[in-house]
Write a structure and sequence with these properties.
The protein is of the alpha/beta class. It contains 15 helices and 18 strands. Helix content is 38%, strand content 20%. The strands form four sheets. It has a seven-stranded mixed beta sheet with strand order 12-13-14-11-10-15-16, with helices on both faces. It has a six-stranded mixed beta sheet with strand order 7-6-5-8-9-17, sandwiched between helices. It has a three-stranded antiparallel beta sheet with strand order 3-4-18, with no helix packed on it. The structure holds nicotinamide-adenine-dinucleotide. The site of nicotinamide-adenine-dinucleotide has 29 residues, from α7 and α8.
């Protein structure tokens, strides 16, 4: 299947294998630097009129985008399942599309009206929020459409135009998303460029491009650091959403049976390929065995298979590089701990949900972000030490406390060094709550008014 083309691109040889079977899901253009320049120029030209629209007009356009995403949801979900691997069902591609539509609709409803800072005999001072210009969006392969929406919608709502570059591993759904959006938006407001990151690294070129005012990036810490370096010369505004190594801490008063399902999905949503998934689980010694038993009992019934099969709840790992990383970290876990479930790779890129107990804090499976379907479980006896171990990381995206005493959970949450903390759940995000990492997990936030403000310059007018 070849998606329809846009005028900017030639169809190159970027072929996208289906993670489930290895068969080709489709082809995408391998853009040149000249293609990128054309896309940026189109966005700059569109900015001249788009940025002059009133807040109500921008809102109306964004609402149309939300509606059209809803109308094309099934088509986009199928494309995601084919190129990304996640199932249509469960918390898979249809769920991703539901999220994309919800975020698009909510972003449309937000606004940043002029603030009057002072109005008295001594003067009148107003704070205005102005669009930046062209925003470059660089997205990863785990939630290709939802993350593109997180980047694009607040940019549009605040009067910016966009060039979006998906991961070379999942370009097809973003190309189609760009086409669908362009049917309801003026020409040049949203532009998609794709490439294979080989001869030309498009993301690096965007980060250094003089025509782009801001980069919003979601991806690994290592790449985020490169974006920051490339962006320095042009002083770009940056929002960086990077990796996490989120810890969950189960307190002795938690109910092992009641929390098993939440623990599982906190760790294994999207096959663990989720920035704010739970990647290390610390469980108090007094209920350790019971928590492990209940978690395994829930996990072993999860059907894993081809995402196009309506019965599958988890699919394959998205790509070979990630598969190898997961296998390497499972090996490290196995060398020290007890494999409670899984551990043996399936066919192709399939890897079963894997749970490994009795690991120490310095095991590679605990210290590195696995970004796949494996969870290390670490035993602790002293809550203070568990908090210290959870915070012993350069990352600080999310964390969770599992307890029957919500107040105690809230108190401990304040001591977690991360941008979001959940009590008795993990990874739940919503469009009105700012989301972002501390320490090396990121810079800035997305969502809500705080996220929207990151797509603007402040101008203060004194009179
Ligand atoms: P990645 O860093 O390999 O790639 C992300 C994007 O950056 C891709 O589009 C890629 O083509 C592009 N890129 C590659 N080199 C670049 C360069 N030099 N300059 C600019 N862009 C460049 O990440 P990935 O493997 O696609 O995604 C997995 C990682 O993303 C994990 O670490 C995960 O935790 C993180 N992630 C974070 C969030 C979040 O919100 N914090 C969300 C999803 C994923």
């Amino acid at each position: 299947m070849k998606p329809r083309t846009s005028h900017v691109h030639k169809w190159g040889d970027l072929s996208c294998p289906q993670p489930s079977s290895g068969e080709v899901a489709g082809y995408a253009p391998n853009a040149s630097l000249a293609d990128l320049d054309i896309a940026v120029a189109a966005a700059q030209a569109a900015f001249k009129t788009w940025s002059k629209l009133s807040s109500d007009e921008l809102q109306a356009y964004c609402e149309k985008v939300a509606t059209t995403i809803g109308e094309h949801a099934e088509e986009l979900a199928v494309l995601i399942t084919k190129e990304q691997g996640k199932p249509l069902n469960g918390l898979g591609s249809r769920w991703e599309l539901g999220g994309a539509q919800a975020w698009a609709g909510y972003s449309a409803s937000l606004s940043l009206p002029v603030k009057i800072l002072q109005d008295n005999n001594e003067g009148h001072v107003e704070l205005h929020r102005k669009p930046l210009g062209v925003v470059g969006s660089i997205t990863p392969w785990n939630f290709p459409v939802m993350i593109a929406i997180w980047h694009i919608m607040p940019a549009l709502r605040t009067g910016n135009t966009v060039v979006v570059k998906p991961s070379p591993l999942t370009p097809l759904s973003t190309i189609r998303l760009g086409e669908i959006m362009s049917e309801v938006l003026p020409s040049g407001v949203v532009n998609v460029v794709t490439g294979d990151d080989k001869a030309l690294n498009l993301g690096a070129a965007m980060s250094a491009h003089t025509g782009i005012r801001k980069i919003v990036f979601t991806g690994s810490c290592a790449t985020g650091q490169k974006v920051m370096q490339s962006a320095a010369e042009t002083m770009k505004r940056l929002t960086l959403e990077m990796g996490g190594n989120d810890a969950g801490i189960v307190l002795p008063d938690a109910d092992p049976k009641a929390i098993a399902e939440g623990l599982f999905w906190g760790a294994f949503i999207n096959n663990g390929q989720t920035c704010a998934a739970m990647k290390r689980l610390y469980v108090h010694d007094s209920i350790y065995d019971e928590v492990c038993e209940n978690l395994v009992a829930f996990a072993k019934n999860i059907p894993v298979g081809d995402g196009m099969n309506e019965d599958s709840v988890l699919g394959p790992i998205q790509n070979a590089m990630q598969f190898d990383k997961v296998r390497r970290l499972v090996d490290a876990g196995e060398s020290e701990g007890r494999v409670l479930l899984g551990g043996v790779p399936g066919e192709g890129l399939f890897f079963p949900p894997t749970i490994i107990a009795d690991l120490s804090q310095d095991n590679l499976l605990v210290t590195e972000e696995q970004f796949g379907p494996v969870l290390p479980v670490i035993r602790y006896t002293d809550v203070e030490k568990a908090i210290a171990a959870a915070n012993d990381s350069n990352n600080g995206l999310g964390g969770s406390i599992w307890t029957s005493d919500i107040e105690k959970g809230r108190e401990l949450a304040k001591r977690m060094e991360c941008g979001s903390v959940w009590i008795n759940k993990h990874g739940a995000i919503q469009p009105n709550a700012p989301f972002g990492g501390v320490k090396q997990s990121g810079l800035g936030v997305e969502f809500g008014e705080e996220g929207l403000a990151e797509y603007t310059d402040i101008q203060v007018i004194f009179s």
